């Protein structure tokens, strides 16, 4: 039987209200909205380290949600059928560097507030994608996204890299909500071996619907959310998404942060700080995220890219 995060709630909470922002605070304008203080930041950190994920409700206000929906719909409408076929399981993989609105999201005051609550030491950001499952589209394959398994820190509790997922619509198992394997960032699961490197063209294209990468698992946890909620997860966590059986898009924007960049090895920092270009961003957008761009001035060789965990993951 599938579980949901409802099993974690306390009386009076809706399922995703594990860590609520204070809704009593308001701001004078949407763009200058003050970051709302998180309740129970230690619990936020503890759940992230132990389970590999946590939730913050109502992080995005209606204004930015509306503008993000409009922008992402335009980008998705412009996708070619060839691109859609290439990402049939994923849905889409549109780089956030194509439009300056995404710089607002990267440097959002609420996101910064969450990172501060996690005790981050000068966090950095690397990349992000618009990932949208079209109507009547198949499940996303099981996978984890960490690429630095050659580095010894990959087998320690502190997260090296985090995903920040902002869903632009309410999600349920019916329209493709996130599902995950709690604790799989620190403990080996059979899916690590059945699908050692899930980022293949075959799995993206959904070439074999019977492949174990798409299967439902008794121990999986569903994570339904409301539009504007934030799902935070360790990049090592095994996760996927249900099929979208609805008649509407299910869009999420995923951003990748390094919460403790200065604590990472020289090899990881060298790999993370490689130059990037955001072709659709203007100077204002680049300035907005300037303090979040990783920089490494040492002479270490970058850690080799490797998505497959070694034997140290037990």
Task: Jot down its keywords.
alpha+beta; 5-stranded mixed beta sheet; 314 residues; Jelly Rolls; 6-stranded antiparallel beta sheet; 11 strands
Distance between the termini: 25 Å
The CATH top-level class label: Mainly Beta
Mean pLDDT: 89
Strand order of the largest sheet: 2-9-6-11-4-3
E-strand count? 11
Low-confidence parts: 6-35
- Find the CATH topology: Jelly Rolls
Taking the sheet with the most strands, its summary is: 6 strands, antiparallel
Helix percent band: 10-25%
Rg (C-alpha, Å): 19 Å
Question: What this model shows, in words?
Answer:
Strands 2-9-6-11-4-3 form a six-stranded antiparallel beta sheet. It is built from nine helices and eleven strands. The protein has a single domain, classed as q2cbj1_9rhob like domain (Jelly Rolls, Sandwich), CATH 2.60.120. By secondary structure, the protein is an alpha+beta fold. The longest helix is centred in the first third of the chain and has 16 residues, at 62-77. The chain has helices at residues 41-51, 62-77, 81-86, 101-106, 109-117, 190-194, 201-204, 266-272, 283-288; strands spanning 3-4, 53-56, 94-95, 124-133, 140-143, 162-167, 178-180, 221-223, 230-234, 239-241, 250-258.
